[in-house]
Amino acid sequence: MRNQDLSLLYIFDAIMMESSISRAADRLNMTQPAVSNAVARMRVLWSDPLFIKKGRQIEPTAFAHSLWQQVREPIHTLRRALDNQAFNPADSQRQFRVAATDLTVDLFWLPLTSALAEQAPGINLYAVPFSQRSAEQQLRDASIDIAMGPEVEAGGSLRSLIAYNGRLCLAMSRQHPLAGRAISLEDFIAARHILVSHSDEALGHVDLALQHLGLSRRIAVTVNHFSVVPKILLNSDLLAVLPERALMGLESVEQLWLAEPPVALAPVPIMLTWHRRQDDNHEHRWFRQLMAEVIARRLARAD
């Protein structure tokens, strides 16, 4: 293979991972016109338009998808081999895209960005919405580098470590009729509930536990982020089963009544998950270790 073809494949891979010419340019530390010129050469050499503009986005052609399926793993294998040279975080110019919930961002982004500014000021950190349903495909496609959230099932292609265990608690307004006393399972099921869901399903850990008992509750409201839940609880008769960490540091927490849920709920492990092709990538390995350390320090200060 000619050197020119190999260089174009690296650029092509970056565009496919980023779904954007400009983001690919950032990832490659190139100018946007230089990447656009490379795309023009690809179209001539490979006799295909490759990317079709759809509004502000670009959509790969069928040929582009097929080509990427064939070259993606070899390119990443070659990149890993080249990455085995000495790595200095202070000199890195790459970006990391992390799928994360708003709770993760609220809790950990400030200390994480501070650590990056001190140790690796050239690294860019991008948060994208976390969905347990789509995280596996995003990791396979390399559209994200790490997913932080509940466990993602994907056989042997993904790797993970436990960031922390999320203990669940029952929360409601102190003015709620059920506040201030032990809550029976019967009262719990009869109440109206709010659920944080990052999918289109009104189903959570509580509902799965209730199903094993042949029971169900009424999900009256769903939201897609944690930060709004305390305000809703304080102004409604809704109940919520939340990770205790979701209430960490909130001024309004003193206005809430917190209790043990009347159904047995195991702590939810929050995982850092990545694709196995990144196992030996020095930059990726350094970054996930940094994330684990930042999370541990942040939680130790809170406990």
Describe the structure.
This protein has 303 residues and is α/β, with parallel strands linked by helices. It contains ten helices and twelve strands. The strands form three sheets. It has a five-stranded mixed beta sheet. Strands 9-8-10-7-11 form a five-stranded mixed beta sheet. Helix 2 crosses helix 3 and helix 5 (102-119) packs across helix 10. The protein is elongated and about 70 Å long. The model has no long low-confidence stretch (mean pLDDT 87).
* Low-confidence spans: none
| Rg (C-alpha, Å) | 23 Å
In whole angstroms, how far apart are the ends?
57 Å
What is the SS-derived class? alpha/beta
Number of helices: 10
> H/E series, N to C?
HHHEEHEHEHEEEHEHEHEEEH
Q: Output mean pLDDT.
A: 87
Apparent shape: elongated
Helix content: 40-55%
List keywords for this structure.
elongated; 303 residues; 10 helices; alpha/beta
Summarize the structure.
This protein is an alpha/beta fold and 303 residues long.
Topology:
Layout lengths: L2 H16 L2 H8 L3 H15 L4 E4 L2 E4 L1 H22 L11 E6 L1 H18 L4 E6 L5 H7 L4 E4 L8 E9 L1 E6 L11 H6 L1 E5 L8 H8 L5 E6 L5 H6 L3 E6 L12 E4 L8 E8 L6 H21 L1
Parallel strand pairs: 3-4, 3-5, 8-9, 8-10
Antiparallel strand pairs: 1-2, 5-12, 6-12, 7-10, 7-11
Helix pairs in contact: 1-2, 1-3, 1-4, 2-3, 5-10
